[in-house]
Amino acid sequence: MKAVIPAAGLGTRFLPVTKAQPKEMLPVYDKPTIQYVVEEAVASGIDDILIVTGKGKRSIEDHFDKSFELEYFLEKNGKHELLESVEKISELADIYYVRQKEQRGLGDAIYCAKKHVDGEEVFAVLLGDTITISDIPCTRQLMDTYEEYGSSVIAVEKVPKEKVEMYGVIKPKTLTEDLYIVEDLVEKPSPEEAPSNFAIIGRYVLENEIFDHIENTSPGVGGEIQLTDAMRFLDRIYGYVFNGKTYDIGNKIDWLKTSIEFALEDEGIKEDIIDHLKELLNERV
Ligand code: UTP
Question: If DSSP codes are grouped into helix, strand and coil, which group holds residue 3?
């Protein structure tokens, strides 16, 4: 299976940080966000990845490219551990790029992948600003569900009712404990209109027909071509309750929380961070 990672958005919720740099390159502790996303695809068994980029996103391509100068410098100075970590990045997978010329929404970004995934029955989509952590990678969980059930499948997660308007939300019909038939989908509904509090978290396995449906989808919420609106036309979609944790780093507060959480996972600096946080809290609370 091939993977598509849309990363062409303007990141307006993160301005001014994102004025001249992609939000997908924002570090979460010691790696740029999109590296976690590519690593998830690779850990799921995917080695062909298309990243949808746009204006101002060159640093994404540079990050996954070989850096001869840097590698030579590290080698010469005996910094072998760093050299290995840098070399590893450019060897992760076959990464291709396509540019979305206008930021017309997620549906339009996915449409840019049409040629690359031509002839494939299905492909995986991983949003470039969302990290997932689980024993079995989220995308792998979806691929396994597709193999078993044979239709498009999207990862969902229960969110507090007041947060549904930040997501695409499904109307679920129970099939098994962690699998639903998606009867309908709504992009960013108000809490009153939301058909459930199962939110789409940014991981999908989509059948190729989605491209025909995107073609027939008019701009929706925010004047953007919404993937959620196009998915409503697929014959059958499953909503899979992802078994793991999701981190949306597209807004400042969640990015900050995620960065702290990930830093606390590093035993080498954990105590230092805890002491610092305690100190800050003592001063303020
Ligand atoms: P978001 O809606 O979170 O990204 O899209 P955004 O539009 O950049 O964010 P804000 O609302 O302005 O802050 C989720 C993913 O889809 C990509 C984004 O780059 C992000 O990884 N995307 C979104 C595109 O590739 N193209 C688009 O036109 C919109």
Answer: strand
